[in-house]
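Cast an eye over this sequence plus tokens and walk me through the fold:

***
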Amino acid sequence: MTEQTSPPPRPRADGWAFLREAVRDLRTTGAVAPSSRALAHALAAPVRARAPHPIDVLEAGAGTGAVTRVLLPQLPRGARLDVVEANPRFAARLRDLVAAQGTARVTVHQAYVEELVTDRRYDVIVSGLPLTNFTPAQVDRIMARYLELLHPGGTLTWFAYLGTHRARAVFATRAELHRHAAVERVLAAHLRSGTTRSRTVLANLPPARVWQLHPSA
């Protein structure tokens, strides 16, 4: 980007688009509403922390662009942003969003992040994927791919909704409880691979915890 601009207002249709995709496949969409601005701001913190240096940023699981809108005006001069979204309808909306910003330093890829073809490495990776909705093997592959794509000294940030464990304990099947516990063990193992910090974002539906991982060299 050559200059910083104010993010465009979020279209009213985004919430309905997100809800429609959640109805189609809640497991991969992950929620019934886009991330709040407060959550997006927390996820973008590692990008702000590296200003004004030009950096490479990857956003995975961008959805309708709630986090992308916050990231775009915060990219330092000379930075590049790759946005990865597997849902074709969401990817089309993201391309429209990027086109409206008029920047040539942002590329939208319709792909699963595990299958992203790139030789680029990233200083910051922002994950919007609903990791606790996947199988343990999928989560392990996704996290391994993130760490493979991350520059030494880079930051990986993602979030997890609060209260889901309690809700699953009431409503989920035994198999679902075992799957969720196994996913949490996978994530815990990756958290032990470096230094971490977290913060709670209550102004989101549902509230969420944002994690930052700085892998050990």
Remarks:
- The CA atoms of residues 1 and 77 lie 6 Å apart.
- Residues 1-12 have pLDDT under 50 and may be disordered.
